[in-house]
Records
---
Amino acid sequence: MAMYPKCNRIDCFGNKCGSRCDILTEQKDTDNCSFFKTDAELEQGRANAHKHLKVIHREDLIKKYEYNPQRRW
């Protein structure tokens, strides 16, 4: 059974169920977490990655990961 560290940042995309982090594997200082992103920042990063894949002509990866901006991961 996986052990998830406690997370106080309820506005982070990695915080699941309001109390645990699905990104980190060990307890860190959640107030200064380098993985902290809001849902909006996460979506913007995904959109930027999608644009980059189009520029470098990697439609195979776009298809493989089925980018859909409306989909919640």
---
Amino acid sequence: MSSWRVTVRTGPKVERMQAATLEEALDALEFHTRAAATAERRRTVDLRVRRYEPGDQVAVRAELRGPGRVRAGFDVRGDGSVEAWTGRVRRARVEPQDGDSPYEALRDALAQSTSVEP
């Protein structure tokens, strides 16, 4: 049986979990990301050379790793918005289609790119 690893990073705090199936891993990601999206808010960071608005900052990153080098996850921005992504070295944003949430968009993208269960 393949195992899926779930990692949630909130600043310096890292939480790791295991999930037996892709569906369980995605449920865990969604649970942690939804909680962070309502709780995490950042202020604007104003440096001398650049200004980082809350929407430019990643407050929480939740990712999963699985068989076949699958890597995907969610970024919760400092303004509470959520973006889904896939990829190992370069992250590609997963755009929601037809009114889908980022959670549904990632589920659809992974269902198309992986064989979930034998």
---
Amino acid sequence: MTRRVLIVEDETILAKNIKRYLEHYQYDVRIASTGTNGIAQFKECQPDVVILDIHLPDGDGREILSQIRQVSESVGIVIITAFGSVQLALDAMASGANDYVEKPISLGTLKLLIEKCTAS
């Protein structure tokens, strides 16, 4: 079964690198560069996992996380950010994220987190 991943990340190079890496492992990957586009794509493609940047050009990733959770309680959500802190991690987890990763991201670690989110 092909797993679907939505990357909501405004850093184009990072998003494309993650996409290329995951596609190598047979993931079906889409990219959104804004929260608004991310919500639209989420509703359209119904991914298994969302990789969500906390700082987006059109808003706070925590608000996007909340909107995604209103649509689906079961989708895996991994928060990524360059502005990490213990409090941010706790807030993201309390808001419904499955996990949290700071940039720079290890692609191997990210893949493991996605697998953890999709394990049944």
